[in-house]
Protein 1
Amino acid sequence: MGKSSKKKNKVILPPQLPPDVDDDEVVVSDEDVEFFRGNEGHARALARLDRKSIDSYVTRVADHDEDEVERLYEERERRRKAAEALKPKKEQEDLEVDRVDALPVKTLQGELVFNTAKKARYDDSSSGVKSKSEDKGADAKQAAQKEWKAKFKKEKGDSKLRNVHAQTEAPNGKLQSKVLEEVKEELSAEELFEKKKAQLAEIGMSMLENPESNIRSLNDMLIICNDKDQKVVKLGLMSLLAVFRDIIPSYRIRQLTEKELTVEVSKDVKKMRYYEYTLLRSYKAYLQKLISLEKKSHFYTVAVRCMCTLLDTAPHFNFRESILASVVRNLSSPDDAVRKMCCETIRSLFINEGKHRGEATIEAVRLIADHVKLNDRQLHPNSIEVLLSLRFDEDLGKDETEVEKGKPKKNKRRQNQEVPKQLPMSDKKKTKHELISKARKEVDAELRAVSFTLDPKEKRSIQKETLAALFETYFRILKHSMSTSNSRGKAINVSSDVSHPLLAPCLEGLGKFSHLIDLGFMGELIACLKKLSGYSDHQFKILPDNTLSVSERLQCCIVAFKVWRSNLEALNVDLQDFFVQLFNLILEYRPERDHGEVLADALKTLLWEGKHQDMIRAAAFIKRLATFSLSFGSAEAIAALITLKHLLLKNSKCRNMLENDSGGGSLSCLVAKYDPEAKDPYLSGALASVLWELSLLQKHYDASVSSMASNILSMANLNPTQNPVPISNANPLEAYKDLSMERELSKPVNKMLPPNCKKMRRGKEFVSLSSDVLEKSDYRADGDELKEKLKNHFAVLRGISENERLRAELNHTLSSINLYKEYKKQKKKIARA
Amino acid sequence: MRALDEKETTTVFEKLFKFTGPNLKHLLERPAVEGPDPQPGRYCLRLHKNRVYYASESLVRRATAVSRPRLAGVGTPIGKFTHGGSFHLTVHALDLLAAHARRRVWLKPDTERSFLFGNSVPKSSLARITENTKMNDGVVVMSMADVPLGFGIAARSAQDCRKADTNAVVVLHQSDAGEYLRREEELM
């Protein structure tokens, strides 16, 4: 360490140091400039001194040094004090921020303590990342609490620091480096983290106390968010979120026009404008940060959570579009938690329309539509399910038309009245009148802009657009699944869930909003649904080319029914093709694979709620449902039986089927023989059959099923006009739910042997269903298992036959030995003889 | 009595197809239920004195024993060829069509009479209609008690029916059960 060079540095450096200390101080210029001016002189003098000092090393230099150092010190102290006196006004927080950095200035030698300290901090913080693995995924709600905690901790930290300072101040300059190292060590990672936290908390608190004057510290928080430490960044994001949540105003900040900028404004307005401008700028920066962080895996959850919360609390504020876009993008994220969060946010956006006047709803729906389009409909179902929580005001349309009808009349009358009145008016009066009306219009416009309620016209147009986007999405999904379901026909083993994830929620949504569909679409929609449900004109070849699952197809039928019912109440339309489809789908139902609830719902909507069935079709359904209820569990059976009973009640002629007389007599129409596998209810010849299933069902283990069966059987003895005493008024769906609940409750007992149960059930199916249907079923899935079983079986059989053969051989040998013995005996006898 | 030639078969089938659609196959392939033999075979179409009959194979076999001028008919008559060569379904075919038809129209009970007098079906008397009925489809007209009353041609699709005004014709009359009384001589 050459002392001369060091001294040289020292002498020249101190003036340069202040700017190094903190950049912010550069602004505090007056003193600096003065100092520099003064310093130039000093520097020149020092330069002279230096030349001399080169000649003689130790003594002179030391002298000069001391002098210089002392003088410089005095200067700097003065300057620092002045600066500190200035600072508290503007940057109290900054002072606190920099206290750590600024402190080493007090050391005797006045070396480059700042830099080393800073470096040390960074190092520590970077090492702190590794050392500390404690999870700090701070929740937004906990943020406030944390800030409090952090404040307390910070106080502790401060006291520690003060100790450190005391230590550093005490020893001489020679010991300084040692002390610094100690400081470094003591400022462990944890403390640094705590410090950061405390810093954030401090800023946050001050922001919340007085956001208007402290608005600039948002920048500091943003800077903290650029920290290397992930946890600090996360904390920073969360605390910024908490701050923004509180200080975002309830209005949208708009860009000032040039005209407005030129106008002289009062101090308050200026202040306000500055505040808004800063807020907006930092908000933008924050969002950009969030969006960029969203792409990094470890910040993903935090960033999305921040955006969701922001969208939830301030859907009216600026830059909503960008938040909305990324939230919608994450609707189908692979992360369950993130997806759920986004869904909740969008849902609340739809429900609380008052917050943003419905504009965000449109945007969200449109974005979802685009999203679906871009991703080729391969998304998580959640992204569409969200749309179910949309609300449409149905009265709005009516009111509007009524108002519009009323309006022109009134206007006309008024105009008629006003026109003759205005004529005699003088020019002066006219201008006055115009002025008044103009002013009124302006006031009205302003009022409307300020108030959150929309006038019905606007609201209506918003709803219209939302609906358009909504149905665009739905129809796109339908169309897509239709086109692929045909082309997919060849690949048999493609499971339908993979390729049509959106179909189920889409159908659900269509069912829900069916009353809002334009009648123009109706025909196409129904045709589309029909195709999806697997119906084709050539009924004898259907089904192999359709790969939608049974539940999905049933749902298509249900939706079609709902759509028609809600729209065409006036005209009674018979959806025959869908009945045919249901008729066939009943055969394909498998309790483990398909949703029984959907089937019960289909029975309810198509058969139970339907107004009128014609006789032949009703009979076909009755017969098929009876067979169906024999083959499945009690829940399915009760749903089927309730429907069956309802059909029998409505169609008294079908009660012939309850008689123990096959053939059906004159009613059997043209089909004399019952065909259990018929594809068309009209050609099944069900009227010629007898409902023998019911007497079997009377002995069902489930009390409710057996009582229902005997109730139905009692109908046979009654007049066609009489009806039996109703047992329950539940519809098939409710009954199904009740019983399946009971089954769930009693399951723990049966749970010991689920595979057995399954097998038994499957065995039943074999009895009741045709071989044709079975081939199509999930036969292949069991192939291996079956093979194994058969192998075992035949191995045993082979063993038995082998055993038999061996036994026979043994017997044979034994008998031959016996014979030989006998022969010997006889031989001996002969020999003796 | 003879089997229909190719041209006649196509005209008859085209007419029937309007009503039954793909069920036409079933109409001809179903096992017969009439006839003196224990195995009556399938149904077939025969032409006799310009009328087309729908009869089981065993009946036809027996009928060949009767000389042409003395044979009044065999099985169910379903229609006749006009002098111009076109084919008309007659009311006899009603049961057959009703069992196999795809499109049906139900009439309100108090308007059945009007239809049975030979009038077309206006929208006001329409109680129910099969959903995907298209224009020019054949439809079977039923009473609300599911008794087939007659048949005709749809004048407008089920969807247009909604928009049509109450007096608009929905089904053009072709034939109805009332003809058994009104045109008794002609039918036999």
Protein 2
Amino acid sequence: MAGKEATVYIVDLGRSMSEKRHGRRQTNLEWSMEYVWDKITSTVSTGRKTTLVGVVGFRTNDTNVGEFVDDSEGYENISILTPLKQFLLPDIRALQNDLKPSKTDNGDVTSALVIAIQMISEATSNKSGKPLKYDRRIIMVTDGFGPIHDDDLDGIASKIKDDEIELTLLGVDFDDEEYGFKEEDKAPEKAENERILKQLVDDCGGNFGTLAEAVEQTALPRVKEVRPTPNYKGTLTLGNPADYDATLTIDVERYPCTMIAKPPTASRFVVRTDLAGALVETQSTATVVGDDHDEGGQLAAVRNQRVYKVENPDEPGAMMNVEPEDLEKGYEYGRTAVHISESDSNVVKLETEQGLEIIGFVHAEKTERYLPMSRTNYIIAQKTNSEAKLALSSLIHALYETECHAIARLVAKEGKPPCILLLTPFIELDTEALIDVELPFAEDMRRYKFPSLDKKLTVSGKVITEHRDIPNEGLMKAMSDYVDAMDLSTFGKDEDGNSMEYMQLEETYSPLLHRINHIIRWRATHDTYTSLPEPPAVLMEYSVPPADLIDEVSKQLITLKQTADVKRVPPKQKGRGKRNRDHDKPLSGLDVDALLGKTKRVKIDPQNLVPSFKQALSATDELEGIQAAADEMGAQIRSLITTSFGESNYGRATEAIRVMREELIELEEPEIFNTIIKDLKKQILGEDLGGERREMWLKIRDNRIGLIDNKRSMMSDVQLEEAEEFYRAS
Amino acid sequence: MAENSDTKRPGDEEDDDEEEIDDANYKTAKDAILFAVDISESMLQRPPPSDDKKADRDSPATAALKCAYQLMQQRIISHPNDMMGILLFGTEKADLKEGSTIGDQGFPHCYLLEDLDVPSAQDVKQLRDLVEDEEQAAEILTPAKEPVGLSTVLFCANQIFTTKAPNFSSRRLFLVTDNDNPAQSKIDKDTTITRARDLYDLGVIIELFPISRPGHGFDRSKFFDDLIYPTSPSDPDALALTSSTTKISGSGDGISLLQSLLSSINSKATPRRALFSIPFEIAPGLQIGVKGFLLIKRQEHVKSCYVWVGGEKPQIVQGSTSHLADDTARVVEKTELRKAYKFGGEAVTFSEEEFKQIRQCFGDPIIRIIGFKPMSSLPIWANTNKATFIYPSEADYIGSTRVFSALQQKLISSKKMGVAWFIPRRNAAPTIAAIIPGEEKYGDDGEQVMPPGLWLVPLPFADDLRQCPEQTILKSTDELTDIMSKVIHQLQLPKGVYDPSRYPNPDLQWFYRILQAMALEEELPDHPEDKTIPKYRQIDKRAGQYIEEFGAAFKEEMTILRSSNRGDIIRGPLKKRGADSEDAPAVHGKLAKRVKTEGKSQGDGDDLAEMNRKGTLSKTTVAVLKDWLSERGQSTSGKKADLIERVQEYLDSKGM
């Protein structure tokens, strides 16, 4: 939880801010606002009520300083654009309209400062005028033109210091030695102003910098700091203190070490219908804003309502709604419903007591690195407990020296299910902790088997080491050389040019998180646009290998590609696809098709529908053969539906349609299928197949086995829209 | 309009996270297994009695049924929506259950013990009775007098799958037999091959679990290689693995028939489903194909559901969600829904197309290696989630396997890892993953226990790293560290490794034991079996002596520290502490053997005193301050500033 904040931005809106300098494509104001908007929108996105933002413009056409000074003399051409408040989207929009370069050079920067100080003081004091606990900030951007009244700078500086306000001044093209920028041919007037302002900032212990640096930093994603909160406070024990004497008990606390930062989630809204009429009337005025941006206020939240149904006991096959009062909690055991009354609800819960208990120790190097399955935590000694600190430190150091890890059982809270943790020592300059991570239980391991990668077994059990799937020496060498050449552990450079590890964890930023944050903030300040911006480059930096390194290893890369000799499997050949393919064969390689009798036409057997359909298709090369098989399949599907008792045959019919659809796509005869399915839809909805069969139609719709569109099969002349329309019953 | 949904969870929330949804789909791809067990004289023959405890007592047929029983119980836990059935063939009796729509032609000598369905509590009970009650079993398990052709069995399975599980994505026939040449004649053989082909065309996979008789090996090439197809026609190399032949062991040569068959069946228990199939770019311009698998995933128990109790029999309800506009309570069509982000008190909307663009601007799904680092650059603290296993596939790139193999072997031998940009699916968030090699490992019986391949370990971004809370350290002494090291040496787990298979999830096991007992209306068990509870007696026996030694040294060290003038050590209420540490262990008679640092109440305030000196007292949380004050009988009311003031006053008064 962050503390309360009050920040006033002072923005220079003088005539000179409309200029474009040093070959930039943006005006000075646009450039400055890039920084200011970034700051303001990131404040807005926190949604905190206790973070106040205000904006003051100086060198404005008008004067508006409200009630902060009795006499506006000396405060001409200064405007309070937004008073200190929680900034919201409408404030952003209003501010955008106000932020236009003026036609004047007049307006004194120091007077603007005084106004800002007044605003802060007013907003952050209680009724009796006593200052409250706030972080106070003034951030000022200016291009350094325009007159400055430097008569009371000392007074202002000491006021800023007394009020504990942090002043930051960012100047357009101001000289900054640290950053390494010096403007050539600087106007003497500006040089003098820079000097005055620098003096002022130094006097009140603020920050003085050039705008370029600040804008550059906005490109770097901001990492949100989270205050550590413990998720376990209790004991770490070895042995059972209740029954044995020789045991060890240490008071510990557990804090997150890694925690995936989630991007903001979108919520569902619906356009409000009660406003639809009003919308039409106000449209002419709304066009200024442009598009659906303005809909913000016209969206209503969406609520979910759940309805519960059961099969009607009196009418098998039909469903009926049931009231929530008649529902109780239960579980499924296989297909048996086990109902557990509210009072018994704890019966399935394992009784556990809070605790972190060491089960035993393992060798660090024998712990497979792929086993840990969760995020990690720090376990540290209780904060105000010296004995716990010394005891935990002994354990940490002993683990470190013996190169062992501990295995422990954690019950985070009474009644919670236990989990198994791996505890590893973590020793850094000012930190000693155990790092814990969850390990799998027996049930969490899926025992799939895969063939060996370095040898092949023949059917007879002989071991082969030369095979096209096994790398030869050449490939092994090429791979080894490439891997060694692409080493990143020394490829990076630190500030002094020394080599260091490239792409450290601290340098990588979550692409999606920052992309969504970025685009929301961008959208909030862009009413009209033609296309969304690309993600900031910093988010894509580690999506490809570093180009410099790839250049260096080109030789190894070429050798690797040659020896690897990987060939892309060509996309399915055009034309009569499957009809010419090699038919699938059993392990023995026996030609089963020959056995089936390839020449004679295979009859569709209703008892063996799918296989006989497939075999009929593979037995024929003629269009008539395919047509005949499909027609007969269609007839069988209709018969399945017609004779279905309730929904009993729907599953089979659905599967048959699906198989037919897939086979005909493969054979590139979508028309045959489309004709059949169109007729089928008509017959189902027309109740021609043994009465009301609407559920069958829903099955076709839900499984999306309707018309084959031309995206699915090039040979189809059905458009995607038509295929979609087909699913709408009518 | 209400949309159908399978979820039955009360108060189900809409989930916007694409990734999670994908995960769920992966799990709900349904699987149906039909066990077909050969009931012949030789399958029913028990091994000769033996004194050896490890020797087999089961006939191959009983062993197969026991396996089926175990598998059924397991699958209720791990795959609650999947179907299972048991078909006995070669029996004297024939029975395909009433009401069956399976043809009129009849299937002689096929006895459907359990119809193919999601198992019910009754099915479990029936199977258990059969396995445990020999008399009842003998009634059914009587072999036919005439030999039985396999073709009938295959067609029977065909019909069962067609009617009971018509649109399951995975359907498998588990065939347990010891007869490697069941065909009576050429015609019979051809019919069987045709029937096997039918199953293949139907999408049913035959998994053969062969059993070899003493003195007679099981030769697949005689017959079964004509029936069984490579499981993945598009990727013939991916699975050339067949189950090993289970041998009927002689007396006491280790592993029993039952265990061996179980392990063989267990390895096939879950159909291997790929999580994704994407290109793996090892170097610019060098792509191969890989498939991803989840080999490690937390197994949860079923979510509770609502049961309707208004009728005679409790029924599980089906829930469906409809959307209402919050302002007018009007029912809203799904197409009317707009997604928007809340920002500055309003909603910032994007079109559907823009949403796609925002998520997909990072490119297509891929694993792209950025470079390599030593394995040591992957500390355990950098873990964020479970690892994903990848294995090569030749489906899209020929030569994938050898290149993958070369990379895996190189990474193993050089102890290196790859660092990769990883997008598993369209719409999924990109992550950076470490690619670490997994070595093939075998168990004691030569069976593979860990497959060879590569693992993708997702790495944290800067955004995901949390700072360790500030602390003052009290560093261990060499003496204490050494004694503790002895304790560690004494308490090594077997072979010094953590073996997950030794630790079943106690919560999950308990849940299903209770649920099963309730479903079968049996008495509830009263003691959970929890293998995760440390073995206290062993700890005491093996390390007690050293823990005592540690306790003594620890006490000494604390005394020295306390009397020293080190600023970071307690100069707190010595007296109170002395009394405490003597009282508590006294209950157990022996002093000095327990390093007991009781709860918060004994916190010394040493840190607070220290922090006060440093002027960092304001960094302490209100909770700590309150605890501290209440321990000293001080008031805990007021704001933080008041609390701090009170702490300072107290410390002043005590001269700290």
Protein 3
Amino acid sequence: MKELRNREQEVFWFQRRVFVAAVFMLLCFALLLGRFIYLQLVKHEHFERLAEANRIDVQPEVPNRGIITDRNGIVLASNFSAYTLELNPQKIPNLDATIERLATLVDISQRDRRRFKRLYEEFRSAESLPLKSRLSDEEVARIAANRFQLPGVEIKARLFRQYPMGDVASHVIGYIGRISQREKERIEAQGLSAEYKGSDYIGKSGIELTYEKDLRGTAGAVEVEVDASRRVMRQLSRKASISGNNLQLSLDIRLQRLAEEAFTDRRGALVAIEPSTGDILAFVSKPGFDPNLFVDGIDPQSWEALRDSLDKPMLNRPLQGAYPPGSTYKPFMALMAQEFGIRTREQAIADPGFFRLGNGYWRDDKVGGHGMVNLPKSIAVSCNTYYYQLGAELDIDEWSGFMRQFGFGQKTGVDIDGELTGTLPTREWKAKRFPKDPKVHVGDQVSLGIGQGFNAFTPLQLAYATAILANNGVAFRPHLVKRVQDAKSGDSQLTQPEPAYTIKLKPEHIQAVKEGLQGVVLEGTSASVFKGAKYTSGGKTGTAQAFNLRGQKYVESQVDERSRDHSWYITFAPLDKPQIAMAVFVENGGFGARAAAPIARKVLDAYFDQAALDANWKGFLAQKRDTKAEP
Amino acid sequence: MIQQLWNKLTDHIDPVLFALVTLITVLGLMVLYSAANEAMGRVVGQSQKVMVAIVVMFVLANLSPTFIARFAVPLYLIGIVLLLGVAVGGEVIKGARRWLKLPLIGNIQPSEIMKIAVPLILAWYFDKHEGAINWKNFLVAGLLVAIPFALIVRQPDLGTALLVGACGFYILYLAGLDWRIIVGGGLIAAISFAAAWEFNWLHDYQKERVMTVFNPSLDAQDAGWHTIQAAIAIGSGGLIGKGWLSGTQTHLEFLPEKHTDFIVAVYGEEFGLIGVLVLLVIYVLLIGRCMLIAMRAQTLFGRLMAGTFGLMFFTYTFVNIGMVTGMLPVVGVPLPFVSFGGTAMMTLFIAVGMLMSIATHRKLLAT
């Protein structure tokens, strides 16, 4: 009996313990339920957002960059799609080993390696840097097959910029390159990050830089569903990218190429402008460079070669080279003298072959002088004495005020960045530049009168001034882009040829100057070069002193090639209704008639004989095909 | 005839217990199908294992508790020997020595045996000393738990060790262990845990797991990743869930271990709070049924076994869901009757079989 009670007691105790356990368990379950309520009701929106963020990936869609063509539609810059081999330095512990491993799969040249190293040094935090571009299908397949052993190695289909004409017009077109840290900061500061999303490239120079805003287009975005390994499962939505605008240049690439060829291996610049519109037909800077080298990051060796070359191939000479205009300044001097009423067409001087003023003595080129020289003749024979005298008589500020109207020492406002102002001396300028000798001396003015001394103008300025003169004082701002075409709508916006301003000039004064310029071609300093030309033209030779001889006689053969005088030639044609105005500058080319004028002749000949120009162009294309096919 | 056969077959099957277990298992297979990205293979494999486990359950249900109790000592001894074998020559998988390769049988995990063997031997032991249980018996019982616990901790397998230890503790508790000792022991455990932490007795991965409970973003890619992704899955499920087979966290592979330990996150994502509530209620009913069987059992052996299994089911469920929802450290404990894996399923159905044996054999012992 006792045992039974004991037993009952025991069961009672046991059940009490079960009861306690049950309460404990229910509490625990309540705790779990509370946790689920917290996660699924209280924090539901937070976690839903996180789940969406997990699942949805917004991938930028890189827009097509606008195409650049010449005035006849010949493509100068385009895009092509190609596979690149890219490395993500963040995911690769040993870059060298990975590159070695890749080299066993595809050919990786020393140039590729150097270029990659340079990129890596500049963009250490980048997530993807190209090692080799333009992979063949076979190479893509070989890497893809080994991809699992190569973490951080990616094959990407990318759009590449291509400049099919190579170094032709390289200074005009410019090039694109990877966005640098500084550019990135600028993009962010301007609030343009969205438009550059997914794009690593930006215009660096030339039209590619100046028209970056038009060319780049707007990035789109594709919303995709991805799994945990970032594999795309499906597309959710898409905002298409908007292609950049296409640009049609005013440049005639055939004429441009022919002009570049005419320079052979000389350094220099040539700018040809259509006076009635301001269209720049040719814009030569020699030597050029191959912009294709820059597209994917230039390798250090090629870059050093370009940077350190004495020929300065990266210098945009027509835009950024300022030189004394030499005798090409004379027609403008002659026009001014008439406008100021201090010379007439007929008024002549007796040229003894020198000019003396006080203690000063200035020699003419021709020993014994040119005899009686009136205004047109002073231009045709390039009589220094005439202009020494004129220079000595003028007021420097009135003088520069007149020349400013022709754009001398002013930015022309051409649509390409980096233009140099040059130097058009004034009293103020002299005082600022030479505080120890602030006065403008008569001697200074004598030199300035023949376009030497402090005068420093760019070839573009000279071409512009020539175009204004050819157009009888009506100025059209020079421009390289003729038409901006919206890639989507096809609407195009023509750069309207509206005169920027008109210089008030007396027609007979212009006529007298043009007569002189015609004289240069017919019987003057460039007559031998232009013999037999099938068109009329006006021209003026010029020689700019590259360095001061301090009164010594200049003997070309005794002077180092790079210290020789620069050769100038300005011209327009035909005489009565000019279609083309041009300035040619040959660095260290010597006398204007010898180096610059023949180049001008070739360009004008071609310009007025389209069949010959076409034939020349076809020859170039055929030659390009052959050299491509050879290796 | 057929009626007789049916009676014979179902005589020892507890219908409530069986219905609840079947419900959870079927629910589990449904979730598994979703977690496996609608691949039938895994579901078929798991179903086969469930079938085998049910057969074992049926056999055990038909054995009398007295008969089952006879296996207590040999099973425990075999378990200890195998654990020693693991310590000496076990297979090392993922840095832990848990598996033993046996001729003919193949790879087994002896710690799993202990989940049954420890409650069994303790229940047998207390039953033997029924009516005269004193502190010495508790000491011996404590030792019987401590030996396998220590061996499993050494493997290292903290999750299983804690489960085995917990089962042992439940029996001691149900057998009437003095409250003072329970409270005192709890204090000592807390202190020794602190000491273990301080003096680096725990493995780094164990410490890391504990740490990440408190701050999952501590190591988002590694230890915390599981917890964060599980919380996102469950939380984004909301009140009604994203629908069966439509969980993005599950189907886009963001959720790790989604077939096994983290399967409740799949369930929570696709069925929402309402689904979770249903599941929790089923577990509560299941555990309640076990405790009812314990209270009705007429031997101390039956009471202790049934009560311990009920508490064991609770522990599995609570620890698993607690860790998936980020309330407890991530220890490898499956969700009972749901998580993919044959071994755990077998252990659970063995327990269910024994529960049924206890539930259905009591009348025979009533006299």
